[in-house]
């Protein structure tokens, strides 16, 4: 039986590319927002949902972090890292010299700034809601180009004029798979947790990091988000190497639980790469 | 001589409100983006520039953090905390029952979700680039309302139908003043720093936090941003209580400098509240 995989759409989005990379054969269903992907998993419309959590240039995807902290009991069951390549796309037949307008998402413009300055100086940049929505409008306009991925080019029958036009070749997005359950231990896993404090938080964070350090556990990420109740009060999100069922990790999580307010284990899952 | 203060515009923005709160008599000049505010300070068009750095609901303003880390040598010379209150505004004469459309910035919609659901169920929400741009369009449309602040209402001659319509009454934004120099010690100061590591970063962060803990210095904030070169590598931003010229702080900063790569002192300035 093929699994049903929800993803942050529309078709042609980078999340769809990640879904293809994750499971080519799954039935893939686009949802219009991160909360609707999560809702589809909660209501068993799909077995799992794929959403972005971090980009190497832009940083954390705060919608996903806040969903995990505040609004959902779903767990992270896997991670997928996707290299992000942008392309200059046009309607078949449009030449580079004809281009007067470029459509794309503002982040894509920011990530291709040098290319645009050198290759298309003076063109008008018009923002769209997603790179794939930008590619979709191309057939209406022979003087326009769009910045998008190869999958969007395929779906909307666009022609690739230049590929890998991003300024930074290390542009990668990390996606997580949200499910009702997390994953079994594989021997090379990661555990994501979040917590807050009733009291002066950043000082206590040091104490919690001490529990982790003491056991020689590798900490791969520290992130903070507002607790939304008071300016200067935070939730902290930590990624640890190891599975929550391994004794060292289990003992550490229990020590952390005694120190913090609202420890939430966001899931253990195979580590990428 | 009145000082010239740049701020993230347009007129009627929350940054303008913060600028008024900071210095009522200063000449206030709006700029269209965070980088253009910084540039105006660097080119001495204004003596200082006011930009948002953190909101109690949305979290860090990553453009400002990345500017401070990567793109500017300006220093933080002060901080201003502004309570954010949203209002439902209309053209004079428009009644609540006439409203079919509401214009605003997507973040303002998100922050007034409950009010909109209860008071204006079924109205169409149309996104604009800023709350103040939303208020500006009101005169063209007698069936429309906008969510914005009292200053925008004043500038664009709009009528306030309901005030403080935000879901969360703890909605606050922290702004920082960017200048060529930071501030002299007042006895109640804060110092902002950022740094990265050549090596496995979050483990070393623990060591750096140890230097701070050891001296009994209060850490009020820990934030991470991607180093933009590699997924999973970060710059860390820390706020410490105390002025960089105080001996305890100076010694600690020197110990941190020996441990990290690229320590940048972002400024010492009087602590809010």
Written account of the structure:
Chain A is an alpha/beta fold and 273 residues long. The first copy, chain A, folds into three domains: 4-83 and 171-179, Periplasmic binding protein-like II (D-Maltodextrin-Binding Protein, domain 2, 3-Layer(aba) Sandwich), CATH 3.40.190; 87-163, Periplasmic binding protein-like II (D-Maltodextrin-Binding Protein, domain 2, 3-Layer(aba) Sandwich); 189-270, Alpha-Beta Plaits. Chain A contains nine helices and 15 strands. The first copy, chain A, has helices spanning 14-22, 34-42, 62-71, 106-111, 113-119, 131-136, 150-155, 201-214, 247-259; strands spanning 4-8, 27-31, 48-55, 59-60, 75-83, 87-90, 101-104, 124-127, 144-148, 159-163, 172-179, 189-196, 219-226, 234-241, 261-270. In chain A, strands 1, 2, 3, 4, 5 and 11 form a six-stranded mixed β-sheet that branches. Chain A has a five-stranded mixed β-sheet with strand order 8-7-9-6-10. The first copy, chain A, has a four-stranded antiparallel β-sheet with strand order 13-14-12-15, sandwiched between helices. In chain A, helix 8 (201-214) runs antiparallel to helix 9. The first copy, chain A, is elongated, with a radius of gyration of 21 Å. The two termini of chain A are 27 Å apart. The model of chain A has no long low-confidence stretch (mean pLDDT 93). The interface between A and B is large, with 37 and 38 residues.
By DSSP, the count of extended strands of chain A is 15
Radius of gyration of chain A: 21 Å
Main sheet of chain A?
Answer: 6 strands, mixed
Provide the low-confidence segments of chain A as ranges.
none
| Domain unit count of chain A | 3
Supply the number of helical segments of chain A. 9
Strand content of chain A: 25-35%
What value does the average pLDDT of chain A take?
93
Distance between the termini of chain A: 27 Å
Subunit organisation of the chains: homodimer
**CATH class wording of the largest domain in chain A:** Alpha Beta
Give the CATH topology of the largest domain in chain A: D-Maltodextrin-Binding Protein, domain 2
Question: What share of the residues of chain A lie within helices?
Answer: 25-40%
Determine the CATH superfamily of the largest domain in chain A.
Periplasmic binding protein-like II
CATH second-level architecture of the largest domain in chain A: 3-Layer(aba) Sandwich
- Biggest interface: chains and residue counts? A-B, 37 and 38 residues
Taken in chain order, the helices and strands of chain A follow as EHEHEEHEEEHHEHEHEEEHEEHE
Q: Globular, elongated, flat, extended or rod-shaped: what is the shape of chain A? A: elongated
The helix/strand class of chain A is alpha/beta
């Amino acid at each position: 039986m093929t699994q049903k995989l929800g993803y942050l759409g529309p078709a042609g989005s980078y999340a769809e590319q990640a879904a293809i990379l994750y499971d080519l054969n799954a039935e893939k269903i686009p949802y219009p927002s991160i909360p609707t992907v999560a809702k589809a998993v909660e209501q068993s419309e799909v077995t799992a949902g794929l959403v972005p959590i971090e980009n190497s240039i832009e940083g954390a995807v705060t919608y996903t972090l806040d969903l995990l902290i505040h609004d959902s009991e779903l767990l992270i069951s896997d991670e997928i890292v996707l290299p992000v390549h942008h392309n200059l796309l046009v309607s078949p037949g449009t030449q580079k010299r004809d281009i007067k307008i470029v459509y794309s998402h503002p982040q894509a413009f920011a990530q291709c700034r040098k290319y645009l300055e050198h290759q298309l100086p003076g063109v008008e940049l018009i923002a769209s809601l997603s790179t794939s929505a930008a590619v979709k409008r191309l057939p209406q306009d022979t003087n326009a180009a769009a910045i998008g991925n190869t999958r969007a080019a395929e779906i909307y029958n666009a022609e690739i004029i230049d590929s890998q036009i991003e300024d930074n070749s290390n542009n990668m997005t990390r996606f997580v798979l949200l499910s009702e359950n997390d994953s079994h231990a594989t021997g090379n896993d990661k555990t994501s947790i979040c917590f807050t404090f009733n009291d002066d938080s950043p000082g206590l964070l040091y104490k919690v990091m001490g529990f982790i350090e003491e056991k020689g556990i590798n900490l791969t990420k520290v992130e903070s988000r507002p607790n939304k109740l008071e300016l200067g009060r935070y939730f902290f999100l930590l990624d640890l190497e190891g599975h929550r069922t391994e004794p060292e990790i289990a003992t550490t999580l229990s020590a952390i639980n005694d120190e913090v307010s609202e420890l939430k284990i966001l899931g253990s899952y195979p580590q990428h790469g």
